[in-house]
Each structure stands twice: as structure tokens, then as C-alpha cells.
Amino acid sequence: MAKNRVTIKEIAKVAKVTPATVSMALQDNPRISTDTRKKIQLIAKDLSYHPNYLARALVSKISYTIGVTIPNITDSFYAELLQGLEDGASEFGFNTIQCSTRNILSKEKLDIDLLRSKGVDGFVIASAENEDLNIKRLIDDGFPLVMVNRRLTGKPYCEMADYVVPDNLLGAHIAMEHLYRQGHRRIGVITGLANTSTGKERTQGVKRFLKKNGIKIEPKLFVNGGWNKEIAYNATKKLLKLSDKPTAIFAISDEMAIAAREAILDIGLSIPSDIALIGFDNIIPAQYKGIDLSSVGIKTYEMGKIAIKILIETVERKTSPMTNKVTMKPELYIRQTCGFQGYETKHLQMIGNKT
Amino acid sequence: MAKNRVTIKEIAKVAKVTPATVSMALQDNPRISTDTRKKIQLIAKDLSYHPNYLARALVSKISYTIGVTIPNITDSFYAELLQGLEDGASEFGFNTIQCSTRNILSKEKLDIDLLRSKGVDGFVIASAENEDLNIKRLIDDGFPLVMVNRRLTGKPYCEMADYVVPDNLLGAHIAMEHLYRQGHRRIGVITGLANTSTGKERTQGVKRFLKKNGIKIEPKLFVNGGWNKEIAYNATKKLLKLSDKPTAIFAISDEMAIAAREAILDIGLSIPSDIALIGFDNIIPAQYKGIDLSSVGIKTYEMGKIAIKILIETVERKTSPMTNKVTMKPELYIRQTCGFQGYETKHLQMIGNKT
DNA sequence: ATGAAAGCGCTAACAG
DNA sequence: CTGTTAGCGCTTTCAT
Q1: 75-114 in B: which are within 8 Å (CB) of A?
Q2: How many CB atoms within 10 Å of residue A342?
Q3: pLDDT > 50? residue B353
Q4: Beta carbons of B2 and A142 less than 8 Å apart
């Protein structure tokens, strides 16, 4: 009812031409004479014609819509990423339709199926697990997709699709190095889920750093924060109850770092005098005065824009020339939680972009 | 290419029936015998058939997709609202496709047109301005829509469409009363844009409170924060430069309150000893230790769920029985920024829902 | 109980 | 240059 809008048929009737002519005229197809083209376009405007993209998509096989799967939007990191995706898509005349998977593979499967049924042209996947069957199926089907932030890790699939991800090994290295340079040798780590590339690689980066610097890897200093505030909060408390507790903590995401911060303060310790703290992602709340969380992170919004650009390019030329693999270089954002007093470093950069 | 999925035609061929029969069988239409229905459904599964919703929508006029316009997702308040919308939609088998308008009406117009062309069944609009022509047009066209958080204010349109909004007058009252009870009489206000219902009504609520309590309304104590961190930051500084500066500040959104917080601290004043601070919305970062922002707010996530529920109900029964107007009751969340020492109040509620 | 036919709104061949 | 025809994948009459 509310949907009865004018169609090319009616325009055709008014212009005394056929629907096909109208269709072409509206697309400025040079096959139609400039006169009739102008005439038809005028009539279309007069009748306030709006194309039906559904019908168009049915025949042209392109809907100008991209499916996005993301763990959840209320996490600042993903909100920023999503904004990059949306803005990027918009620049190319595309829209995104996103689903929150909550890190549940069965939900992701449902979401992906639904989005495919709705005719999306491709996927940006921010919810990848290391051995994500849903994504593998998409790859097998030759469906355009790019993973962002997280990616598949198992061979051979990990090299079969495009992705844009942070350099997690380097990021972890930078964070650890920063703590190390402040003199910390006993460093607790709040890890994420190991079945995600970010969780796996960041932890791996930590271990490499320790090895390289001749520090013994103590399993009890690694506690699982599960990419989740509650879990990270409790994990931190566990860490702080250790008789030989760490002098510093590296939480491999800022969301978890903020939870760790709560735990540390709740226990009555001070940051950074009693315990130093650094996170990963450089989310906006990390920059708030009163939080002032030191962090290492990549340009999240940009990462989103790059990912969607790659996807749309492959969608539009409909040919995958070669896989696009982008690694974003992380930077150190020094604030108040590490007791930084000053030193020289190539990674150094004071305070991030303020929104 | 990647889109060639099995269609009902192929199922029909295999099942030796006509496409129409397949269509009905797949919808469990009792017109088809149980036997053939079962048989067809089995074949469909075997062939891993997935319906093409585009085609379906073209004929059935329902796409199970809702358009959402929102100022921007990186604002915690809207992220939470959006999550409610998405979750709510998902419960009914709908998806949302959202656009960030950035509070720009021309962008909103483009977005709405595009979404209509993409065949959305209705709109949830979180970007309404008081006299929003785009929305008025939607109403005139009889297009299903519900406004959320903000709404139209001018007559007669303000009563012509559904909405779910906070009780802004009450909310402002609660915030002011809280400050008042701590003894504050000179209260600075960081206002939002007056062309939004939230901005207008919250400021109005403040003024009513002052009047009721015999406090003179001093224009210089009202500074425009423009729903924007930068602007709010500068506005706060302006307020604090006053020779007879306020002893407390009410920022009518938490995002602005957090910016105000930065300004206050940057200037070297303490919270709450030098100056008290209260916000509006009760966003998640307000709950972080170190921020501990006192705030008044409604259940944002719930508001989103209610809004989408109303919309989907009107979409599905395709008849607007009566307009649905919902007002959410705000509650006070007392934290550390108002120097609260204790008193009794009917609005009182300690600490909010922790995520 | 099922088949046949028409059509949603649009585009893309092929004619003329 | 423009019209005709066919069809995207599905649903929904109307016949049989």
C-alpha cells in the first residue's frame, strides 16, 4: 500500500515509449537520443519516480548491499570499525547490512545465510574464528568476502581470501617493550580467546618478546579474559592474588584493559605506581581523562574503510585478480597507566587522534 | 557467478512438479498433500536450496528489512540503541540496514530515499529534528515508521506518527533536583541542539525546575554543547571562566558530560569538590571507574527493542490501528561526580546495570 | 491435489 | 535510434 510508487511503465505510457527505452534513458544510455533521454528524465522527476532496486537487483545480480558480521556493536572498537565500513560503503554507493554474531558460530551461520538470501554482493567479516566453517564455505562458493581484524589461520584457507588485520605480533611486541623499558620484568597478560587470530597472535607476540629478552614464560601469568569485561575483571583479580604478582599487566584489548583497571582499583592498588597497565586497540574511551589508558593500536576506522574498499572493488570488477592481504601497523599511544617518564623510541607517538 | 544458487525451478524438475507447487510446499501450504510437501522439502534440503528474498520481496511486497537512520554509531548511546534495534528485529526475523546521518538533513534525505528504493518495509528514525521534512514526507506517504529517542515537535505532525522517547522533562527535573539537594543553586547547563526534541525538552525541564524553585534563570549559565564533544568542551571552559561561575554543571547528554569533565579537569578544578557534574543517558562509559559519572537515563537498549517491535507490528498487520506513543521513565544513577552523601528520594537507584 | 499462466519492476538481448 | 521479447526467482490467481 504505502509502497505503490511510480514505475518505468507509467513513465513509458506518459512518454509514449516502451519501458525498455525508459530504463535505458534513466541510465543515460547513449543508445537513446539526447532528446528523448532528457524528456524521459524530466517526466521521471515530475512523477517523482524512484527506481526499485529490488527489481533491478533481481536481473542485474547486483544489489549494492554488503553483508557485515561483527561480534557486537556496543564494543567501542567495533563501533568505530563499523562506522568506517559504513562510510566507506557509502562513498561507493553501497549500503551495509550488519549482524551481531556475539561470537557464536551458529548465529554467524544463520546470519550469513540470511544475508545471502537477501542478495548481498559480498561480505565483510569481522567475526572470524581461526577455523571458521561458515567462512570456508563462503570461500568454497567463490563468494566475494574480506575479513577484517580477525582472520582464518588454518591452511590452506588462511591464504585463500582477502583480509585487513592489525600486525598483532608487532603490536604485542610494542606493548611489551614499553613495559619492559619501564623496568617491568614480571608482566601479567590478560589474553583473549585463542580461537581468534587476534587472541592467538597477540599472545604469541608476547611470548616471543619474553623469549627474546630471556624472560621465563610463566603460565600462571597468562589468564584468559575471553574478550569479555566480566571475565577479564575476574581474571585480573586472580592475577593480583598471586603471591608473586606481576608489576605490570598487558590486556590484549582495551575493553579488557578497562575491566582490568576496575579490578586493580577495586582491590585497592594504584595505577601505575603499584601496577602498570597497557591495552590494545586504542579505543576512544581509552583517551578519556580519568582513564588515560596507554595502548597500542591501529587506525580502526581506516581499517574498516580499507576493507570495504577492497571488497567493493572485487565485487564491481567481478574478478578476483589476486588476493589482497593488508596488515595495519600498530602504534604506541602513551598515556598515564604505565608511569612513562620519557625515552626515545621509533614507535613512539604521543596521544592519539581526538574525536 | 558466485550467486548461482538452486531455484525452485530446479527443485520442481527433480520432484517432477511445477515451480508453483514447490513454492507452496516450501511454505507448508496445506493445499499441497503432506506427501509431496515432505518430498519437496527433502529435495530442497538435499540441493541446499536457499530462497531468494529479493524475488520474494518483489512479489510479496515485504522484504523483512527495516531502515534505520541514526546520527552516528560511535556515540555509545546510539550504539546501545542500535543493538536493541538489531536484536529486536532479529527476534522477528527482520534485519536492519542503517545509515549514519551525522545530523545532516540532506544526508538523511538521501539515506531515506535510498532505503526506500531498496525496499525496506518501514523506518526506525533516531535522527529526527523538530521540523524534519524528510519524516513529514514519509508520514504523508503513509510509510510505516517509528521515531526513537527524538521526535517531531511541531503540530500536527508530532501526533501523527509513532515514537518511543525518554521523558525528557522528568529526566531534567531529576538531574536538577539531585544537584539542588546537594545544595547547588548556581547550576550551569550544557545544552544540546535546540532543533531536536531531546535538546529542547531537556532544557525546558531545567527551566521549569528553576522556576518552580524560585531560582532566576540566567542565560549565561546556559551554553550550547551542540551534542558534540569538542563544542561541549569549549562551552564548559566558557562557563568556568565566568566570574560568578556555577558550582555544578548539568550536561544534557553523557557524551557532553564527559567532555565537560575533561574541560573541568584541564582547568585544574576537581570533581565534585570544586564543581559537581551530572549527565543524561547513562551510557556505558559513564560507569567506568575513574569516570563514575552520575547520570539520569532510561533503558536505552530496551527503548530500541520497543521501537522496533512497534514498527514490525504495524508492518506485519499492515494496518495502523492507532498511533503508539511510548515515553520511557528516566532514573537517577548516582555515582561520584555530584558529591552525594545520602538522602531519601523516590527516584533513587544506586548504580545501573553493569554490562 | 496440482498444473498453468500471469506478473512483481526492471534489464538485456535481439530486431527492425 | 527505438520497440519487442524474454526472463531474473518467486508468488498467486485461476483452472483442471
Answers
A1: 76, 79-80, 82-83, 86-87, 90, 95-100, 113-114
A2: 6
A3: no
A4: yes
Nucleotide nearest to A10 (CA to C1'): C9
Q: What is the pLDDT of residues A22-70, one digit of tens each?
A: 988 898 888 888 888 888 888 899 898 999 999 999 999 999 999 999 9
B20: CB within 7 A of chain C nucleic strand: yes
> How far apart (Å, rounded) are the C-alpha atoms in residues A302 and A169?
20
- Taking only the tens place, the pLDDT of each residue in B143-166 is 999 999 999 999 899 999 999 999
* CB spacing of B83 vs A72 below 8 angstroms: yes
**3-state SS, residue B318:** coil
B87 to A100: CB separation less than 8 angstroms, yes or no: yes
Q: How far is A104 from chain B (nearest CA, A)?
A: 14
Q: Which pLDDT band holds residue B346 (cuts at 50, 70, 90)?
A: very low
Could you tell me if A50 and B120 are in contact, meaning their C-beta atoms sit under 8 angstroms apart?
no
Residue B343 has pLDDT above 60, yes or no: no
Q: How many CB pairs under 8 A join A and B?
A: 143
pLDDT at B36 over 90: no
Q: Which residues of A touch B90 (CB under 8 A)?
A: 99
Across the range B237-258, mean pLDDT stands at 96
> Is the pLDDT at A122 greater than 60, yes or no?
yes
C-alpha cell at A83: 562506522
Integer distance in angstroms from CA A33 to C1' C16? 17
Give the three cell numbers for residue B331: 532514573
Nucleotides of D under 7 A from a protein CB: 1-13
* Interface contact flag, A355 B229, Cβ < 8 Å: yes
> Strand, coil or helix: what is B76?
helix
Predicted confidence (pLDDT) at residue B119 exceeds the cutoff of 90: yes
| Predicted pLDDT at A322 | 64
Contact between A258 and B288 using a beta-carbon 8 Å cutoff: yes
Which residues of chain A from 154 to 213 reach within 8 Å of chain B, CB to CB?
A: none
Give the per-residue pLDDT at A37: 87
Closest chain B residue to the Cα of A142, Cα to Cα? B2
Q: Which residue is nearest to nucleotide D5 (CA to C1')?
A: A20
Query: Cα-flanking dihedrals φ and ψ of residue B295, to 5°?
Result: -155, 160
CA distance A52 to chain B (A): 5
- pLDDT tens-digit series, residues A227-236: 999 999 999 9
**CB within 8 Å: A90 and B83:** no
pLDDT category at B320 given cuts 50, 70, 90 is low
On chain A, the residues whose CB falls within 8 A of the CB of B268 are none
Residue A251 burial by Cβ neighbours in a 10 Å radius (0-12, 13-18, 19+):
buried
Three-state SS for chain A is CCCCCCCHHHHHHHHCCCHHHHHHHHCCCCCCCHHHHHHHHHHHHHCCCCCCHHHHHHHHCCCCEEEEEECCCCCHHHHHHHHHHHHHHHHCCCEEEEEECCCCHHHHHHHHHHHHHCCCCEEEECCCCCCCHHHHHHHHCCCCEEEECCCCCCCCHHHCCEEEEECHHHHHHHHHHHHHHCCCCCEEEEECCCCCHHHHHHHHHHHHHHHHCCCCCCHHHEEECCCCHHHHHHHHHHHHCCCCCCCEEEECCHHHHHHHHHHHHHCCCCCCCCCEEEEECCCHHHHCCCCCCEEEECCHHHHHHHHHHHHHHHHHHCCCCCCCEEEECCEEEECCCCCCCCCCCCCCCECCCCC
CB contact under 8 A, B65 and A97: yes
Return the nearest residue to C4, CA–C1'.
B18
Which residue bears the cell 553501497?
A: A94
